[in-house]
Amino acid sequence: MNFPYLSAIVFLPVVGLIVIALLPKPDQKTIKFTALIFALASFVLSIAVFCLFDRSGGAVGQIQFEEKISWISAINAFYHLGVDGLSLPLMILMTFLGVLAVLVSWNIQLRPKEYFIWLLLLEASILGVFCSLDMVLFFLFWELELIPMYFLISVWGGGRKEYSAIKYVIYTLVGSAMMLAGILSIYFTTGSLNMMELAGLETARPFIPLAAMFFLMLIGFAIKLPVFPLHTWLPDAHTDAPTAASVVLAGALLKMGGYGMIRLCVSIFPAVALQYAPLLTALAAVSVLYGAAVTLRQKDLKRLIAYSSVSHMGYVLLGIFALSQVSMNGAVLQMFSHGIITGLLFAMVGVVYDKAHERNLDNLGGLARQMPVAVVVFSIAGLASLGLPGTSGFAAEFITFVGSYSSTVVEGIRLYTILGVFGVVLTAGYILWMLQRVFYGPPLDKYNDVPDVSNVEKICTFSFVAAIMLVGLYPAILTDVIKLGVEPIIRLIGL
Amino acid sequence: MSISEFRFLAPELNLLGFALLVILIDLFVKQKKVLAGLSIAGLVVSAGFTVVMWGMPATDIFYRMLAIDNFALFFKLLLLAAAALIILASQDYVSKFDRFQGEYYALVLISAVGMMLLVAATDLIAIYVALELSGISLYVLATFLKDKKSTEAGLKYLLLGAVASAVLLYGMALVFGFTGRTCLMCIAEYVQGMPGAGLLSNPALLLGMVLLAAGFGFKIACFPFQMWVPDVYEGAPTPITAYLSVASKAAGFAVVLRVFFVALGSPEWISLNWGILFAVLSAITMTVGNVVAILQSNIKRMLGYSSIAQAGYLMVGLATIGMAIGNDALGQSGLLFFIMSYAVTNLGAFIAIIAISNKIKSDEIDDYTGMGKRAPLLALALTFCLISLIGLPPTAGLIAKIYIFSGAVQHGLLWLVIVAVINSCISAFYYLRVVKVMWTGEPASKVKVPSSWALRIALALCCLFVLLLGVIPGGFVGIAEAAARILGS
Question: Which chain A residue shows the shortest CA-CA distance from B428?
Fold first, then answer.
């Protein structure tokens, strides 16, 4: 058997957290470097997987780096990992964010040992979600992610942290409860838990109507993505989470919803997806516009970025349920791109809040003078978010919109796409207005002593900027991979 | 019947011998720790005998009074393990009783003997005798603290237990009166031979069976017989609460399985009725348990209600078996797996509580504030067990739930599964509240919480099994499947 790359990637953070847990009375530096080393190791391995990934035409729909061992034979469950074009970019996104989340947390003072243990566990569980091909294993990782996130928000968060943490957990649990019922129904209809075998499920005697299974699964993912009107946990959780948790939450965790929708809803139930696509794309347009409109009204910097995620995840939903190859390609790229852009935005909010101790937009202003580096980085992130050409945001949104508009299978998609595009205008509005209120205007005396970005923060934020630029200038580096995963799914729709 | 059949009772007889030995030696030794060691030795020897018998072909002994099969052996092992863990964990608690430590250990052992006989009993009389043997020991144990609450708990338990016994006995009398038999297999044969509508044509016999169900319902604390649980759990000494919530409940489920699915479940149309009955009771039980648990401020009370809810999940398994008698493998082994997982999880949670409460002298959840700083390992263990009770990975609780629910979905109980998973979400709310106060609040004092080695070992064992069952359940599933085989598949 070859080297188990995926197991190594998923479990290296777990090894890291065990090492941290066993270190006898470590000082802060040791803990941070241990966490960094293991996150980096996972990242390096995932880059290796990215390089070794077979991109040839023969690899369409093929699972690579597969590992399969019997796990619970009674219900036919396997320890089954593997990546294809769909999951690979998201896996890399998570390992990348994993490294940066450790860097973002460099100044954590409160109980650092526990903090990094939870952060590494969070990373491992999200990686597990993206790599699992067995539905029970997928579900296990999906639920595992709740525990570290609960602790990260409720111990290291701010504001109404305990309320936000429990709200987050309950919302997700309700969704996953439905998902479990869906998974079990699929299992007893087919006797299989293998996501790839189940693609294009056709059965004469479904256990319950296929549409019911589809929606049982979809609700769980829609809460995670989030789709209007199931998004209300998101602003609270984001706002009250510590910076690194927000970065991972917005960057990678929301993508679990989009990934699940493609892998477990569209791919398994293509006919049902086609039938309900008009409804879901309409919801996507509502999410985009509602999210953007609410964002405009936010006074709290972090809450503003949080609400912008609702709007941007609407594009993902639009791209997925436009059900064309290009649009779904765009949706996956948008997930990646939003991951790094919003990750950077949250990191920058963290930086500003760290230095200025203020997040209220009414009280901020004129920071450009004290923080010249921060203003540049923040502006790049903001411009990427509103889709400036040359950044990943432009590539992703452009492909999504073009793909959706030209989709032929979904009724009314043109209208929803046009509505969605209008969201970009609103985005430009709130991003530019936000930058203006934070950095420009007359310098305020109270911020005279505010320092600029520190060296660790520079490493961290510059890496984000590099990734945004790389994907923006050469999107094919990802789209070539993504289309290998998307193509077979779209073929199922075409039938 | 021959004398040689007694060899099959080696585990029980051995344990009984050790119980008497403990009482005798108690008279002479000052170091009461010796007694705990002796009790554990007895339990280990009995477990040895049980393991040796595992896998033998099933036999009936004493004119079909008791069955020696994998099913009984599975539960015997579980009960022995529970008793051993309880005795280990009691080390930090027994100092509260100034006298009668020897009697405490002996009673735990004797009640274990009673329950071991109960899980093997295949005759109404044997069931009743075994039930009373364990019941009476437990009534005494519940009052062991001799303070106001403990006495009240014991008295309530005794009175309600006596009523339940009376109901059970009345049911048995009716069943005997209309069939003329006490052995379960003989009753089953009689019922199968009944003409036409069978049971339904004989309301008195049916009433007898309903009364039997009520009597057992008390033991497993399902709705509407769950009223005694919170008061007794709160008042009884904490190790005994743990013992009640795990061993007594497991034995109760074993006897329900035997009576309703081995003896009386054979004709399909009868069992179908049981299935729906158990499904409805299950939905009500878990909802009542979970909703009321939210309101509790005392952790023992909260876990009392939580154990009612867990009984509700277990009844999902009963309902599944009832819906598909004979051709359902998942429901049976799933139920046994769930009992295993519930046992280690709940024991772990209670053992951690024993240690913490012993120091802070309070069972109020608010007093657990900041326990993560005062006793990080205990708090971590308790958190881990609570996470397992919610059913989150990587613990036994998640796998057990997936397992038991998958059987239910397979047999058309999707609605029940949805009720159950929604209930899990509700339960997250109150379990996480304990987790929250332990890790986020500031502790009232900086004093560390000490615990004995015995307790730490017991707690570590529980947590280890919670993790193992949650990560590599394969072997344990195999054991559950082997044990479930008698349930007609």
Answer: A170
- Does residue A93 contact residue A340 with C-beta atoms inside 8 Å? yes
Tell me the backbone φ, ψ of residue A426, rounded to 5 degrees. -60, -40
Classify B317 as helix, strand or coil: helix
Domain holding B352, by residue range, is 265-489
Q: Does B475 touch chain A (CB under 8 A)?
A: no
Residue-wise pLDDT tens digits, B328-370: 667 788 889 999 999 999 999 999 998 888 888 888 888 888 8
Entry pTM: 0.90
Q: Which residues contact B209 (CB under 8 A, 6 or more apart)?
A: B171, B175, B199, B264
User: In this structure, are B275 and B153 located in the same domain?
Assistant: no
Name every chain B residue with its beta carbon within 8 A of the beta carbon of A126.
none
Put simply, the answer to whether B473 touches A144 (Cβ < 8 Å) is no
Cβ-defined contact of B421 to A136 (cutoff 8 Å): no
Phi, psi dihedral angles at A491 (to 5 degrees): -60, -35
Is residue B465 a part of any domain in this protein? yes
3-state secondary structure of A82: strand
Tokens representing A434 are 């936000």
Q: Mind listing the pLDDT tens digit for each residue in B163-173?
A: 999 999 999 99
For strands B59-61 and B66-68, give the pairing: antiparallel
Q: Which of A362, A378, A380, A373 is nearest to A450 (CA)?
A: A373
Do B246 and B335 share a structural domain? Answer: no
DSSP A416-457: HHHHHHHHHHHHHHHHHHHHHHHH-SSPPGGGTT-----HHH
Domain count, chain B: 2
How far, in Å, are B44, B100, B380, B407 from residue B88 at the CA level? 13, 17, 20, 35
The tokens of A278 are what?
């008009």
CB B33 within 8 A of CB B88: no
Contacts of A71 in chain B (CB under 8 A): 472, 474
Report the alpha-carbon distance of residue B488 to residue B484 in Å, rounded. Answer: 8
Q: Is residue B163 in a domain?
A: no
- Per CB-CB distance under 8 Å, the chain A contacts of B405 are 180-181, 184
